[in-house]
Amino acid sequence: MLDHPFWFFTHFGEVERGLSATMVTLSMLGMGATLTVRDFATTLFAWKGLAVGMAAQLLLVPAWAGLLMFALGLIPAGFGGLSAGGAVGIATGLALVAAMPGGSVSNLLTFIGNGNVALSVSLTAITTFACLFATPVVLAALVSVQVPGDFAIDTSRIMLDIGLFLIAPLLAGMVVRATTTLKQQIFFIKVMVRASLVLLAMIIIGSLGAGRLQFASYGWLGPAIVLVFCLGAVLLARLLATACGTVERDSLAIVIEVAVKNGLLALLIVTSMFPAHRLAQAGPDAQMIAAARDGCIFVVLFFSGVALATGMLTALRARKALAAR
Predict the structure, then answer these.
(1) Which CATH class is domain 14-276+284-318?
(2) pTM value?
(3) Quick one: which of 141, 202, 269, 318 is 20 to 30 A from 73 by CA?
């Protein structure tokens, strides 16, 4: 079986979920090792920034995604090179990304921009815990109306995945932080992060080799919509923070947190939303369901790149502005 040179690609669907689950687990172990209970307690005294950040993550971004999905449904099939299946995929991917909590890279970018790192860390951790309930709700509200047929979000499975592969490793990582020396913590974090990145590379290569990422289906309009979603979310978060009178260091943490999502978790959730047995079922809607899955992967990967670039530019701009004062 394994001696076949293209076994990994032809059987990628069989190993995809295991790779995704392991990748998220290792990443969360590494992130947990950077957290302490004090990180949460610190921001309770600065509750305003935390409240604004939570509102932006859990309410504003999903609403923005819903608006773009509605607009996408009004665009004629084929416009901008976006096929009907590609449109379903892009819309489903937007909903998935909108339902994700912030990623750990946002903490690093906030540090680079001299933002409120304690707020950034707390927002990442708290939204990660909140996504146990928020993610299934957002997905059920946005995705079910996009995918045809009797497709429905298995909320219990998604909650189980988040609990097992996200929250449990995060707590275990915090235990590692509390019971090891600084040198051991640094080594542990490096190993976990690098291992998760290796698995991410394997998933991307496997998706390409298995023909999952058919870029022609999205034309120029698909990437443009994802770009508008990312930049619009950043702008709306900035406007919300300004309207609420949030100080600049807190605003920066909130904006970057909104931009940089947990793409690793999103790739795991894709395997829960579209299990292999569902895709294997023959039927008139099977092609559209497969297109929705492939669109989710495309949006997650493309959005992650755009968000990283946006977050880095935002951090560097804030750092330059602070140095000029």
Answers:
(1) mainly alpha
(2) 0.82
(3) 269
